[in-house]
Structures are given as C-alpha cells and as structure tokens.
TrEMBL record:
This is diguanylate cyclase. NCBIfam families: GGDEF (TIGR00254). Residues 250-383 form the GGDEF domain. SMART domains: GGDEF. The lineage of its organism: Bacteria, Pseudomonadati, Pseudomonadota, Gammaproteobacteria, Moraxellales. GO terms for molecular function: diguanylate cyclase activity. Coiled coil: none annotated. It catalyses: 2 GTP = 3',3'-c-di-GMP + 2 diphosphate. Gene3D superfamilies: 3.30.70.270. InterPro entries: Diguanylate_Cyclase, GGDEF_dom, Nucleotide_cyclase, Rev_trsase/Diguanyl_cyclase. Its cofactor is Mg(2+). Keywords: Membrane, Transmembrane, Transmembrane helix.
Length: 387
C-alpha cells in the first residue's frame, strides 16, 4: 500500500502539473495560497484574543479589526477563484486576470508585511521566497514589473518608518518593540509561525517544479537519442555508443540490415504500411538481440546492430535468427492483403580492422552482396560468394 502510494505520488510529481498550466490556472494557485495566508492570520489573531497573557505585546484593537478584514479577504479570494474558473476559456481572461491577481496578492503581501514590520524576518523571507516562486511560475518580465512595484512600495514604507511618518509593525505594541523583540518569545514564535508555512509551501512547489524539469530533461534526452518512429537509437546516438565500445579495445561485430523491396511496399500500399513494416522489424530486432547489444535505425529502411565482445560465429547466429524472424513476419494492409517481409544482412567484425568507419563499410559491402545474390540472405565480410 505504501509503495503504491509513493509510486503514485512520484508519477504526479513527474507529470506536467503546474508547469503546463496556463496563466489562469496559475493565478488560481496564487489565490489559493493567498487564501491560506489569510487563514494563517485569522488563526494567529484568534489565538491572541483567547490568550490574555499575550495582550500586552499586541495592538489589541487592531487585532480585532484585522480579523474582520482577513475574513472578508478570504471570501474575496475564494470568489476570485470562482470567477477565474468561470471565465478560464475566455481569451481576455488570460490577459487580464493574471495582472489583477498578482497586483492584489502584492498589495496583500505589502500590507501584511507592514503589519508585522516591513523589514522583519518574516517579511523579508516571504518576499524572497514568493518572488522566486513567481519568477518560476510566470513569465519573468511579467513578474519583474510587479516585483518592481512591490519593492518600490517597500522602500517607501521603510523610509517612512525610519522618519517616524508611519508606525513600524503596528500590530505589535510599543512595549514589545521598545524592549528587544528578538528576546521576546511571543515575537520569535510569531515570526516562526509566518515563516514555516511559507517555507513548506515554497519547498513543495519547488520540488514539484524541479521534479518535472528533471523528468522533462530525461525525456528530451531520450527523444534526442531515439528515432521517433521505431523507438530505437538514432544514428547519432548509435555512433556515440559505438565509440564507447571501440574505446574498450574488445572485439565487436556490426550487423547491417536492409528491408527488401521497401520502396515497393511504400509505392504499392502507402507510407503508413511502410511505417508499420519499419516498426515491426524494429520490434523483432529489439527482442532477438542480447541486452548488451545496441540496435539503431541507421536511415530509411536500414537498421544496424553493434554487438560488443562478439565473434563472427555468434554474430552469424544472431543475424540468421533475425533473418528468419523477419521472414516469418507478415503485415496486413487495409485491403486485408498480407505482406511477407524479408531483409538482407551484412556482417563484419573488428577482428581485421580497427577503424569504426571501415568496419561499418565492410558490413555495408557484405549487405550489398546479400542483396545482389537474391536478398533475404546473410553475408559476411571476406566471403567470395554465398554458398
């Protein structure tokens, strides 16, 4: 049960949730976070109201007023979520709502930061964390505009508090602020109360986004290495892996395969059937080789197999096994007509040559002879004739 839950959670993390969301859905996420912040404020203030021993450290009339404001704000954010959801398919909504939501969230954040202290640990930490998440979620230029506005307002408030034009951290009492708040347990716990949920939310979002990016990178890497039709290695990745085999200085074999009369299949039955033939041969080759062998689509109707630590005898056996399997493979066309596939094989080993290009060239020469002698045959480098 636990392993199933962990696997399901991992699949969710690796899926395209959040990263592929449009701006409306991301705006809804921001509104949900804003709603959660309002709940944090409400719980904190209710705790204060029900704990008389804390009253000397706070501005109690402001606490009572703020509970109503936070409650109204929470319902307001839920209402915006419903509006965003209702108009999510409208083009204008994708242009308008993200700016509206981010602007409201910025004003809420500045207001909350002013209440607890514009340069308090909670405000600074929240500013850095939320800014980072915003830049990850939305277009950077879009976020930078709102960050500039928020930073400008914060600078103005800092200046005003420095000049005593506005009170600093008005939600706390002057008694607390004038007597080293860092040494006051209530103040310290309040900072931690606001920091920890933001930290957890940011860490979860970052982990989800990073997991999706890693998953995408791995998919991109796989796509760059594979042929999209057959899911085999492409020519470039095959050459890279063959170079690694060459560096081990062990004997290896190369098998070149060409589907017989492939152009005729395309011309007579269409490229769709030709694609089906390529996929069928690719599937057969993948299942018939060893786990250490490398199978790739080498171009058009050609395939190639690299077999590390392999003698000519073993390569001959594998090639013949693959030839027979392809010979027994049939395809059904749209007109219910059956097509019998065959392929020609050319085999060469590194026993007589050290250069990769020459070994592949030897295999290609053997393949040419197999086709010249009637196709559906396996030929080896060094043979005079097939017999």
């Amino acid at each position: 049960m636990i392993s199933h839950y962990i696997k399901s959670l991992k699949n969710q993390f690796n899926s395209d949730i959040i990263m592929n969301w449009n701006n409306i859905h991301k705006s809804i996420l921001v509104l949900v976070l804003a709603f959660g912040i309002q709940l944090l404020w409400i719980f904190w203030k209710l705790w204060i109201i029900n704990t008389p021993s804390i009253w000397p450290w706070v501005n109690l009339p402001l606490i009572h007023t703020q509970i109503y404001i936070n409650s109204i704000s929470a319902f307001f954010f839920i209402g915006l979520v419903c509006i965003c959801y209702k108009f999510q398919k409208k083009h204008w909504a994708h242009l308008f709502f993200p700016h509206l939501v981010i602007s409201i969230f910025t004003l809420m954040f500045i207001s909350d930061g002013f209440l607890v202290g514009i340069y308090s640990p909670a405000t600074i930490f929240a500013f850095v964390s939320i800014s980072g998440i915003g830049i990850i979620l939305f277009n950077r230029k879009f976020i930078y505009i709102h960050l500039f506005n928020a930073f400008s307002i914060a600078i103005i408030l800092m200046y005003c508090t420095y000049k005593n034009l506005v009170p600093y951290a008005p939600i706390f009492s002057q008694t607390l602020l004038e007597h080293d708040p860092q040494k006051n347990l209530f103040w310290v716990l309040s900072m931690a109360y606001f920091i920890i949920p933001i930290l957890i939310a940011c860490l979860v979002l970052c982990e989800v986004l990073l997991s999706q990016w890693r998953h995408r990178e791995s998919l991109i890497q796989i796509l760059s290495q594979t042929d999209p039709l057959t899911n085999l290695y492409n020519r470039r990745s095959f050459n890279e892996k063959l170079s690694l085999i060459q560096n081990t200085r062990t004997q290896y074999a190369i098998i070149l395969i060409d589907i017989d009369h492939f152009k005729m299949i395309n011309d007579d039955f269409g490229h769709h059937i030709g694609d089906e033939a390529l996929k069928a041969v690719a599937q057969l080759l993948s299942t018939l080789v060893r786990s250490s062998d490398i199978v790739a689509r080498y171009g058009g109707e050609e395939f190639i197999i690299a077999m590390p630590e392999t003698s000519l005898t073993i390569a001959r056996e594998v090639a013949e096994r693959c030839r027979l399997a392809i010979q027994n493979q049939t395809l059904e066309t749209l007109t219910q007509k059956k097509i019998n596939l065959t392929a020609s094989f050319g085999v060469a080993t590194s026993e007589d040559e050290t250069q990769i290009n020459k070994i592949i060239h030897h295999a290609d020469q053997a393949l040419y002879r197999a086709k010249a002698y009637g196709r559906n045959q396996v030929h080896f480098h060094g043979e005079i004739n097939h017999g």
